[in-house]
Design goal:
2 domains; single chain; elongated; Aminopeptidase; alpha+beta; 6-stranded mixed β-sheet
Length: 343
């Protein structure tokens, strides 16, 4: 493989189509957070202001015939410990799953070549590879470990967070039968109560491009009713989320859904409908309408829709909130992998 160093957004954008085509062939890392449009939107605000300083440091690898074979979507900064590091684009807080982009049968070759290329790179003067949010089952992890052991670099890997998910059977009733009886009863009861409410209740997925900014505003208003989320929603983070929603909508993988009561937004879910999975990214709730359990009701409708429309998995992503397990989710984990090179 022939490796190349990309340092500008124009260089990154020049391979956008190749980037997404390669990602589509990578079963282990085919997630929305590695799409070109997601990461370019992320870079525009450095993750909503998470990284005030950073330099784009993408490494690509091509086969002798010129075909793109691998991408290490990296940037250079000082990590949380103040160490000059190459980190994965998307790190850390707002991108649930990150990884290298390479076909599974070429991971070992790509990682070995990548690390050798980086070891001889004059700049940036990195001391560590510090890669967050890699799925625990990713082939990147053993490949990194193997290379570090071979050349005597220090390598650590630690579990970070649970990422609960539900495997969908493709049938709403079969899904309900698979979860705890008490929780099944609660879901049915809450959805039925909403249907029988004196004021009209409806749910929908935003689809009108002319109304998208208005829908984003409504979702951000729901999020801001939670004090912790309101603190999270700085102006730059709001800009980041708006750019992300537009990118996902324009590329066909947005699922922005709402439950309304008499025309008033009661709950919202910002999800990604991508690669046969629903990825639950964020949510918001109208606290004045909590008696109707609008979050549960909307989630029930989304799970029913996902089953009826052939989605394979409902991924709640990072966080071990209790409601995820009440809906039948089981755990998997994400990992932080760190390599410190020896000079």
């Amino acid at each position: 493989m022939q490796y190349q160093f990309l340092q500008t957004i124009d260089e990154m954008n020049s391979i956008a189509e190749e980037w997404n085509d390669l990602l589509g062939c990578c079963s282990a890392s085919h997630v929305p957070f590695l799409r070109h449009e997601y990461l370019s939107a992320w870079w525009h605000t450095r993750g909503g202001g998470e990284w005030p300083q950073g330099d784009l440091s993408i490494i690509t690898a091509r086969q002798p015939g010129g075909e793109l074979a691998g991408i290490a979507p990296l940037f250079y900064t000082k990590n949380r410990e103040g160490v000059p590091a190459l980190m994965l684009l998307g790190s850390i807080e707002i991108s649930d799953y990150l990884d290298l982009i390479v076909r599974e049968d070429q991971v070992g070759e790509f990682v070995a070549g990548l690390c050798s290329f980086l070891a001889n790179l004059a700049a940036p003067a990195w001391q560590a590879l510090d890669w967050y949010n890699i799925p625990e089952t990713s082939p990147t992890l053993p490949a990194l470990q193997a290379y570090a052991e071979r050349v005597g670099w220090r390598s650590t890997q630690e579990r970070l967070q649970r990422s609960p998910y539900i495997t969908l059977p493709g049938d709403w009733e079969a899904y309900l039968a698979s979860i705890d009886k008490k929780q099944r009863h609660e879901i049915r009861r809450k959805m039925r109560r909403a249907e029988e409410n004196a004021l009209p209740v409806r749910w929908y997925i935003a689809q009108d491009p002319q109304a998208l900014d208005r829908e984003i505003d409504g979702f951000l208003e729901l999020m801001a009713q939670d004090a912790e989320k309101d603190r999270f929603l700085t102006q730059v983070m709001r800009s980041q989320l708006r750019s992300l929603v537009h990118a996902a909508f324009e590329n066909g993988w947005l699922q922005l859904a709402f439950l309304e009561v008499n025309g008033e937004k009661a709950a919202g879910y910002l999800n990604f409908d991508y690669n046969g999975h629903i990825w639950v990214y964020n949510s918001g709730l109208n606290f004045n309408l909590r008696e109707l359990s609008p979050g549960w009701v909307l989630l029930g409708h989304l799970l029913k829709w996902a089953n009826e429309n052939g989605r394979k998995e409902f991924d709640f992503m990072r966080g071990d909130e209790d409601y995820k397990y009440r809906f039948g989710a089981v755990d998997r984990y994400i990992v932080r992998a760190t390599i410190t090179r020896q000079f």
